[in-house]
Write a structure and sequence with these properties.
Length: 247
């Protein structure tokens, strides 16, 4: 049996300001850094250890991983950063306030943008400064790979191949893997691992800074998955994510 740990970054400045973030490279808030620290303490005190870590190329996930590795005294571990673990690209919604968008477009539309499987947000124009083609960290991506917006389905289509080709062989080689990523890039992986239907995944909200443990069989089928920590606190944090547009 293999153990895999998924960790959504701690609260970011734009989570706090309630703004659609996507590929915008914002940092953690002090509370977010504390959440990362607390999540890592739960891992350390629970006897979890790792051989290799994966994260996105966005600093809120990288910073969360750094904090976690420091707490676990594992800063020497190899860390692989890849854009395929980035947050879902929120297109022209990036930077806009979730509650203001609900007031303007209604609850149903905002829910569809945030949680439906295949409704993409409005797309960016390539001359928009938020288009990732202007950022040199994405210089190796083809035009087809550079998103102007992404639905969760699009995120699954670019994150799951990275899991299948890169991470899953490492897990099957016996290495213990920690992935620090984002609300929606992790929902994409969870949907795939748990074979969740398109409707079922719309109800899943992943809380910030809480380790999600997967126990996998030899074929990487989940035998069990659970969050580490106080169940009431975890439920409250997941609810806060779900209700972000209602604040
Ligand atoms: C959030 C998720 O991403 O937002 O892009 O706004 O996990 O990187 O903070 P994260 C964003 P929702 O899909 O929950 O609205």
């Amino acid at each position: 049996m293999y153990t895999l740990v998924l960790l959504r970054h701690g609260q970011s400045t734009w989570n706090l300001e309630n703004r659609f973030t996507g590929w915008t490279d914002v940092d953690l808030t002090p509370q977010g850094a504390q959440e990362a620290e607390e999540g890592a303490k739960l891992l350390r005190d629970g006897g979890y250890d790792f051989d290799i870590c994966y994260t996105s190329v966005l600093k809120r996930a990288v910073r969360t991983l750094d904090i976690a590795l420091d707490v676990m005294d594992r800063m020497w571990l190899p860390v692989v950063k890849h854009w395929r673990l980035n947050e879902r690209h929120y297109g022209a919604l990036q930077g806009l306030n979730k509650s203001e968008m609900r007031e303007k477009y209604g609850e149903e539309q905002v829910f569809a943008w945030r949680r439906s499987y295949d409704t993409p947000p409005p797309a960016l124009e390539p001359d928009d400064e938020r288009y990732p083609g202007h950022d040199r960290r994405y210089a190796d991506l083809t035009d087809e790979e550079l998103p102007r917006c992404e639905s969760l389905k699009n995120t699954v289509a670019r994150a799951v191949p990275y899991w299948e080709k890169v991470i899953s062989p490492v897990v099957q080689s016996g290495q213990r893997v920690l992935i620090s990523a984002h609300g929606n890039s992790l929902r994409a992986l969870v949907k795939y691992l748990d074979k969740m239907g398109d409707d079922e995944i719309s109800q899943l909200n992943i809380p910030t800074g809480v380790p999600l443990i997967y126990e996998l069989d030899a074929d990487l089928k989940p035998k069990k998955s659970f969050y580490l920590g106080d169940p009431d606190e975890i439920a409250a944090r997941a609810k806060a994510v779900a209700n972000q547009a209602k604040q």
